[in-house]
Design brief:
By secondary structure, the protein is an alpha+beta fold. The protein is built from seven helices and four strands. It has a four-stranded mixed sheet with strand order 1-4-3-2. The longest helix is centred in the middle third of the chain and has 18 residues. It is elongated. The two termini are 34 Å apart.
Length: 157
């Protein structure tokens, strides 16, 4: 950056530096660019929960929970104009993990981009998928060196 600034100053001696960033970096902002292109780590997880577990533990049916996901997380989020927030409070989970592992909790804004999908499988079980395209994490700096946070990072590998 310094070399570019010095080169520009040779061509434009009156140059006055205001900022190095035009704020297109999308750092700590809910931005469609992060949702579309990703930023940091991209993660996709999925699980299948047997229908008897859905009934006994969640006290509902697979069809009802899948419909609730469509109506709340997908349609409701779209109607609210959400950018990358088609989920049920991913920000709570992301922030908890960030605090436990010494991450910058303000990175929760773009790191909580998530879409949660739920479907009934042909066997009647619940299939769940979460796609998170922009999780910003680090293993050095910030709070990662604090004893408790370092222990959490070590525990998760």
């Amino acid at each position: 950056s310094l070399a570019v600034i010095e080169s520009l100053r040779q061509i434009f001696p009156q140059l006055s530096l205001l900022a190095l960033s035009g704020n297109m970096c999308t750092d700590k902002k809910a931005a469609a660019m992060n949702w579309i292109e990703g930023r940091g780590k991209s993660v996709v997880i999925e699980a299948t929960i047997p229908q008897d577990i859905v009934r006994s533990t969640l006290k509902t049916s697979v069809r009802a929970i899948a419909e609730a996901n469509v109506n709340k997380n997908l349609i409701g989020s779209a109607m609210a104009g959400t950018v990358g927030g088609f989920n049920a409070h991913a920000a709570n989970n992301v922030t908890a993990v960030f605090l436990a592992t010494g991450q910058d909790p303000a990175q929760n804004v773009e790191s909580s981009n998530c879409i949660t999908l739920m479907e009934e499988t042909p066997d009647g079980d619940l299939w769940i998928s979460c796609t998170m395209p922009s999780i910003e994490v680090g293993t050095v700096g910030g709070g990662t060196g604090l004893p408790a946070q370092s222990a959490c990072l070590k525990a998760i590998g």
